[in-house]
Every structure is written in structure tokens, then in C-alpha cells.
């Protein structure tokens, strides 16, 4: 408040006048800020990969400016880990070829070809690409054999082979050339397949009636142990003599499988133990197969008689190693420090898990 001579006086002398404002809003230049574009596609089509996006400093009305103008501590992440579906969902698995050298007359050999899923469990062949199916039959490229017929007196047969009259015995032998050692191997051939015709007076001795043969006997396969997902089937396998009694003379390397995997996928899969409990009215604790993010995984359902059952993953090693641990600290940038399990305290971390 001033007088007519521009001298400052008390404000009460200006009380009859409206006092001008002492401050007003002003608009300064806008501050630059970080701009993050959309995440790009994952670097892989399956498995673990990296996703990136463009992050830059910008000023409204101007556009992109130098990154130094923005606060580096608030810069958003420009890349992150991404995970697509399992790379191997279904694939063909081929076994070993059967030995071609078991007979000179063997024209072709076989091997087992099956379609398996990511857990190496056999599934229906329709899941695998038929155009990539490996061959299961091929021709045997055996060298030519020479054949001889060996005959002898019936006295060479143990116990006269069950015959009470004298006769001649006949064996058909294939001479099999081996190139590696320039030697020859002799293979007995089924007499009916022998290309060398003996005289009509020669008879074959019935060797089998003279021997006590033991063979593996198998029963029927049981039903699959589960109603959905991956399970096992079992059958009885025992060594039996020709008399019908148990024997220990069978070759162990020829023993047929007593157990095999089975997979049933034409039934409803459940996503939680609670769902199994409610929809199937099951109250028994045990292993069940659940659909976890599209994968069939064996889960142990506990406390199935209670309202909220618990779910556990059974580790393969057994009870002594059957545990898990949650480590609450994670790296702010997973590419700055080792991320193969080491726990370095000098890395930039956040404890938010």
C-alpha cells in the first residue's frame, strides 16, 4: 500500500480497495518421461525364450529425446523371460531292428515303432505325424547260404525219439558265410523250409519228444491302473516246463515284459483335487492325474475327506528327497547376475515372493 508519493504506508489505508493477487499459476516446459511400447513376440516358438520391447525417453510435443534426460532408476524393463508350450509334444520312437542273421531264409526284419508324448508314454499313433513315421519293416540283405542234409542212424537220438523201430534221422544245415573272419557258421534249418530235398527213404527224428523244453508263459494284460491319463498294465510271466510244472531253465534275456505303460485320454481330466472330490465323490487319498496348464501331471491328493484337500507333487527320488523350498528373493534384472541357482547378495534384488 503506497501513498501518492510512492511511499509505503500501512495496509489499513488501502482497505477500501481490492488487493491485487500476489501469485498465479504458470505453465513451465513439460518434463520428459519413459515410454514403453508393447512386448514383441517370444524369441522361440516352444520352450524358454526372451521377449523384448522398445523403451525410450520422450517429451510431449517433441517426441523421442536422449535417454539421459529421464531418471534411469524408473526405466521400465526392456526384456523378460517367456515360456511357450513344450517343444516335444508327440514324437516317434523306434526300437532296435531284429537280428537278420538268425536264418538264411529270413527275408525281412522288424522293429517296434510307437508314438510317445512328452513324458515318454505311448499314445495313439494319430497324435504323431504319419509322414515322419520311421520304417518298421525292411528287407534283410543276407549273403547266400549253402545247404547240406545230414543223416544218421536212429541210435543217435536219445531214447530212440519215442520210436520202437529203426529209422534214419535227418538234419538240414545252412552254411552261413561271415565276411569279417572269413569263417563259416552252421545254422539248423526247419526241415520243411530246407531247399535241399533228401531221398524218400529218409525220415526226420522227433527231437522235441526227447528234450525237456522250458518256455516262458504269459497271462492276459490287466486293465490300465488309471481311468484317465498315464498308468500301467500288468500280466503274469512264469517259466513252465513241457510237463506243465514251474521251471528255472528259461533264458532270462528272453523273458517277456510283465508290466507296460498305458494311456487313456478319452475321459474327462480334472484340474484340482477338489474337483475330483466333488464331481466323482472320491474321498480316498492317493495319486491322481490332473490337467495342469494343459499337461497331465501326477498329483498326490491329501485330506480328501476334508472340505479343502491339499495337493502335493511326488518327486521321483522318493521320501528322502521329497521336499520343496521357496526362496523369496528375485533379481530385478535376471541377466545382470548368475541365475543358475547361486544366491549372491550383491545383486539388485527385490523380496516380493
Describe this structure in words.
The chain is 2% helix and 32% strand. The protein is an all-beta fold and 353 residues long. The strands form 9 sheets. It has a 3-stranded antiparallel β-sheet, with no helix packed on it. A 3-stranded antiparallel β-sheet has the order 6-8-9, with no helix packed on it. The protein starts with 32 loop residues before the first strand and ends with a strand.
Feature tags:
3-stranded antiparallel sheet; 22 strands
Major sheet: arrangement of strands: 1-3-4
Oligomer: single chain
Give the distance, in angstroms, between the N- and C-terminal Cα atoms.
64 Å
Largest sheet: 3 strands, antiparallel
- Taking Cα atoms only, what radius of gyration do you get, to the nearest Å? 42 Å
Q: In sequence order, what are the helices and strands, one letter per element?
A: EEEEEEEEEEEEEEEEEHEEEEE
State the helical fraction: under 10%
How many beta-strand runs?
Answer: 22
Helical segment count = 1
Outline type? elongated
What structural category characterises the helix and strand content?
A: mainly beta
Q: Which parts are unreliable, with pLDDT below 50 for 5 consecutive residues or more? A: 156-167, 204-212
Overall mean pLDDT stands at 76
Proportion in β-strands: 25-35%
Structure at a glance:
By secondary structure, this protein is mainly β. The protein contains one helix and 22 strands. The chain has one helix at residues 273-280, and strands at residues 33-36, 48-52, 55-59, 63-64, 79-83, 90-94, 108-110, 113-117, 122-123, 137-139, 146-153, 168-178, 183-189, 214-218, 229-234, 237-241, 259-264, 286-292, 295-302, 310-313, 329-331, 349-351.
Amino acid at each position: 500500500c503506497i501513498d501518492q508519493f510512492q511511499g509505503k504506508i500501512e495496509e489499513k489505508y488501502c482497505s477500501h480497495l481490492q488487493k491485487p493477487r500476489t501469485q498465479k499459476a504458470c505453465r513451465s516446459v513439460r518434463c520428459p518421461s519413459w515410454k514403453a511400447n508393447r512386448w514383441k513376440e517370444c524369441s522361440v516358438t516352444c520352450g524358454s525364450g526372451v521377449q523384448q520391447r522398445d523403451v525410450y525417453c520422450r517429451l510431449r510435443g517433441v517426441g523421442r529425446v536422449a535417454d539421459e534426460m529421464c531418471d534411469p532408476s524408473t526405466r521400465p524393463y526392456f526384456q523378460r523371460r517367456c515360456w511357450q508350450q513344450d517343444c516335444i509334444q508327440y514324437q516317434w520312437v523306434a526300437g532296435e531292428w531284429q537280428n537278420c542273421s538268425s536264418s538264411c531264409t529270413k527275408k525281412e526284419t522288424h522293429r517296434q515303432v510307437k508314438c510317445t508324448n512328452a513324458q515318454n508314454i505311448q499314445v495313439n499313433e494319430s497324435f504323431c505325424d504319419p509322414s515322419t513315421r520311421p520304417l518298421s519293416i525292411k528287407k534283410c540283405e543276407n549273403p547266400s547260404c549253402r545247404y547240406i542234409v545230414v543223416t544218421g542212424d536212429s541210435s543217435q537220438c536219445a531214447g530212440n525219439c519215442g520210436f520202437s523201430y529203426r529209422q534214419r534221422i535227418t538234419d538240414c544245415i545252412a552254411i552261413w558265410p561271415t565276411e569279417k573272419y572269413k569263417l563259416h557258421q552252421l545254422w539248423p534249418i526247419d526241415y520243411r523250409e530246407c531247399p535241399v530235398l533228401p531221398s524218400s527213404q529218409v525220415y526226420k527224428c522227433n527231437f522235441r519228444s526227447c528234450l525237456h523244453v522250458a518256455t516262458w508263459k504269459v497271462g492276459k494284460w490287466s486293465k490300465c491302473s488309471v481311468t484317465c491319463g498315464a498308468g500301467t498294465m500288468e500280466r503274469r510271466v512264469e517259466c513252465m516246463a513241457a510237463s506243465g510244472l514251474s521251471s528255472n531253465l528259461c533264458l532270462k534275456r528272453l523273458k517277456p515284459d510283465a508290466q507296460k505303460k498305458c494311456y487313456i485320454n478319452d475321459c474327462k481330466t480334472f484340474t484340482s483335487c477338489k474337483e475330483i472330490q466333488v464331481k466323482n465323490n472320491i474321498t480316498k487319498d492317493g495319486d491322481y492325474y490332473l490337467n495342469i496348464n494343459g499337461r497331465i501331471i501326477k498329483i498326490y491328493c491329501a485330506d480328501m475327506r476334508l472340505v479343502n484337500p491339499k495337493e502335493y507333487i511326488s518327486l521321483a527320488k522318493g521320501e528322502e528327497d521329497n521336499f520343496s523350498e521357496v526362496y523369496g528373493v528375485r533379481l530385478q534384472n535376471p541377466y545382470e547376475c548368475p541365475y543358475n541357482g547361486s544366491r549372491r547378495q550383491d545383486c539388485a534384488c527385490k523380496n516380493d515372493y
